[in-house]
Amino acid sequence: MPGKITKAVFPAAGLGTRFLPATKAAPKEMLPIVDKPMIQYAVEEAEKSGIKEFLIITGKSKRTLEDHFDSAWELEENLKRKGKKALLREIKRLNHFHFAYIRQKAPLGLGHAILCSKPFIKDESFAVILSDDIIDPDDDLLGEMIKLYEEHEGTILALQRVPKTERHRYGIIAGNKIKKNVYEITDLVEKPKPSAAPSDIAIIGRYILTPDIFKAIETTPPGKGGEMQLTDALKTLINNNIPVYGYLFEGKRYDAGDKVGYLKATVELALKHPKIKKEFRKYLLKTLRIIHK
After folding, report:
1. Distance of CA 62 to the CA centre of its chain
2. For position 1, what pLDDT does the model report?
3. Residue 146 neighbours by CB under 8 Å, 6+ apart
4. Please, are residues 185 and 157 in contact by the beta-carbon 8 Å criterion?
5. Which residue ranges make up each domain of the chain?
6. What is the pLDDT of residues 193-206, one digit of tens each?
7. Which fold, 7-291?
8. Pairing of strands 133-135, 126-129
9. Residue 277 and residue 69: Cα distance in Å, rounded?
10. How many Å separate Cα 238 from the centre of its chain?
């Protein structure tokens, strides 16, 4: 029986250049979607799946990430005095989580960010969540991946079908389907030209990794841009006959690392928000009528 997945790593040291100038001094992961920053959606998803310990890989100008997940005594006391109990519960509900922070001192790629987590992870298997990949809170992608890990005791990648025009943006897999929505992966290609992509199935921002990944990262030469690519390290595992599996996700995902994807996530999650969905829906319908006149 494999050990339980109790730790999650959140790489958050990127420069966020797609959202400049908003991210000049503020982390992309702190951009709000409705009333929560992107990274909080990811943390809440991990908590729902039984994760107990959280490691955020930070970089320069990322201090607000630490502040967000810390207690805020003055704010809490202010809300308490004003009787704003619902808001107080909301900002305190993350206070019991256990967070750690490790700084990635240079932007050397996702593989390097994962390698930075080694002192925290030690010899356990763990989850990795890219917080700009927003999974609809009604879906349970990470939970399904953890179940698959418990069955196969190996690395599990989240997968999703993507159109041909977008395949150059992802790591694309080749593999054998072993049952519904589950693949044993035989090859990976990082950001291929559409004509060279081995399939239409892409790796998205959720991973269950075993400790084998650390040696694979350390022994894999740098890839595109001189960075340590996680996809290349995963390919090293496969080449060393260490099984890598994929779970094909059919739920709702938003690529909020892209401006249009971020806006889609904002609109669609606002339409689910219990306090604003009715008013916001009315506004959207009115706006659409004006546009189509």
Report:
1. 17
2. 43
3. 5, 49, 50, 127, 208
4. yes
5. 7-291
6. 888 889 999 999 99
7. Spore Coat Polysaccharide Biosynthesis Protein SpsA; Chain A (3.90.550)
8. unpaired
9. 27
10. 23
